[in-house]
Write a structure and sequence with these properties.
Layout lengths: L7 E5 L11 H9 L2 E4 L2 H10 L6 E3 L5 H13 L4 E4 L11 H10 L3 E5 L4 H9 L5 E6 L4 H13 L3 E6 L4 H11 L4 E6 L7 E6 H6 L8 E5 L13 H13 L4 H12 L3 H8 L3
Parallel strand pairs: 1-4, 1-5, 2-3, 2-4, 6-7
Antiparallel strand pairs: 7-10, 8-9, 8-10
GO molecular function, one term: rRNA (cytosine-2'-O-)-methyltransferase activity
Catalytic activity: cytidine(1402) in 16S rRNA + S-adenosyl-L-methionine = 2'-O-methylcytidine(1402) in 16S rRNA + S-adenosyl-L-homocysteine + H(+)
Main location: cytoplasm
């Protein structure tokens, strides 16, 4: 077991789904520190109970950050050891832990990271998209903040990772389709669990595919390609490619969708040119 360093805040990763991904080191750190700061004490309490770990829990979430940070700083200055966890994955990535870590640095105190599962890294690794990538976490729900973030993602030329709950997936996909436009996207759902699913295709196809969303989702929006103007596209060549794919047994809609996706062109215009409209 690691020897705990007095006055240190440990950032401890927890499983994003599969409990077997939780490291022995992470569990030992939680068992050894004086206080565990938890996003939801019920979630962390159950996780630790099932692992046979006795911990002293203290809530640390978006609604009590201002109150808690001075308390944590005081505890560390007295030489106590504390750990910070989120409900799932690495803390201080998509939760208020970032503000705490910044305060730790500002006060000349110590931080140690006990790495482990991360939903953003897991989904990006599965995407097949090239680095770099940007991470936005959960999108704002309403108004100007949401529009601003959607505009940022639309202008970001590389892959972008966002989180979304099942209740808001349809709306978020439609908003992304409107703001980002033609691109590839990877959906990660129930990652590391029994019903894990990864899906890759065009954003438009995902919008048009009826689904019953279950479990929190991670979306990896692919790097944006420069969309050529209609006059720059070699339409006869692309139409011929679609026709060959159909002759080889592919469904016409699937062939059109794939060629449009591969060449970052409008699927509807390709359809019209294929049928001579």
């Amino acid at each position: 077991m690691d020897e705990l360093i007095p006055g240190t805040l440990y950032l401890v990763a927890t499983p994003i789904g599969n409990l077997k991904d939780w490291s022995v080191r992470a569990q030992e750190i939680l068992a050894g520190v004086d206080i565990v700061l938890a996003e939801d004490t019920r979630v962390t309490g159950l996780l630790c109970h099932n692992a046979g770990i006795a911990v002293r829990l203290l809530s640390f979430h978006a609604h009590n950050t201002r109150q808690r940070i001075p308390e944590v700083i005081s505890q560390l200055q007295q030489g106590h050891t504390l750990a910070l966890v989120s409900d799932r994955g690495m803390p201080a990535i998509s939760d208020p832990g970032q503000e705490l870590v910044e305060a730790i640095w500002a006060h000349g105190l110590h931080v140690s990271v006990i790495p482990g599962p991360s939903a953003a890294i897991t989904a990006f690794a599965a995407s097949g998209f090239p680095a770099p990538f940007g991470f936005w976490g959960f999108l704002p729900r309403h108004g100007e903040p949401r529009r601003r973030v959607l505009a940022e993602i639309a202008q970001w030329p590389y892959a972008a990772v966002v989180f979304e709950s099942p209740h808001h997936m349809d709306r978020t996909l439609m908003d992304l389709n409107t703001s980002v436009g033609i691109c590839e996207i990877v959906l990660g759902r129930e990652m590391t669990k029994r019903h894990e699913e990864y899906w890759r295709g065009s954003l438009q196809a995902l919008v048009e595919t009826p689904r019953s969303w279950q479990g929190e989702c991670v979306l990896v929006i692919g790097p944006r390609k420069k969309i050529p103007g209609s006059s720059e596209v070699d339409w006869p060549q692309l139409v011929s490619r679609v026709e060959r794919m159909i002759e080889q047994g592919m469904h016409p809609n699937d062939a059109i969708r794939q060629v449009a996706r591969d060449n970052a062109i409008d699927r509807r215009e390709l359809y019209q040119r294929l049928h001579g409209y």
